[in-house]
């Protein structure tokens, strides 16, 4: 499954980049996130509860950041296990483009799922993934823009 989109955030690129690397900001923005812990400079551990159609599962997983292109771009990869509900793994490439006082955030993500979740049908999973990504980035933009005003 592939997801790609872009969002305009009313904040300078360095502020957006810093927020993308702040576990507290990410925890507020990730739908269903119960816990997000920084294990090392490039590793995060997460516990997230998600509902996809009739299946609700608590996932625990790890995310690894690759900041090689920072602050203009970076990548992340992760995997999670939801027990009987299944498992997921994937990654995303994020590009930040400064546009005056604003930043355009572009992302290209892909994910693979297995287990009970994979049996739900690709259309349901794709639409749920798009909704979750949309919620995350809308929430992220709101948090970053709010911090700019404060």
Describe the structure.
InterPro entries: CO_DH_gsu (IPR010419), START-like_dom_sf (IPR023393). This is Carbon monoxide dehydrogenase. It comes from Palleronia abyssalis. 29% of the residues lie in helices and 49% in strands. With 150 residues, it is α+β, with helices and mostly antiparallel strands. It has a seven-stranded antiparallel β-sheet, covered by helices on one side. A hairpin with a 2-residue loop joins strand 6 (87-99) and strand 7 (102-114). Helix 2 crosses helix 3 (122-149). The model has no long low-confidence stretch (mean pLDDT 91).
Short description:
This is Carbon monoxide dehydrogenase. This protein is an alpha+beta fold and 150 residues long.
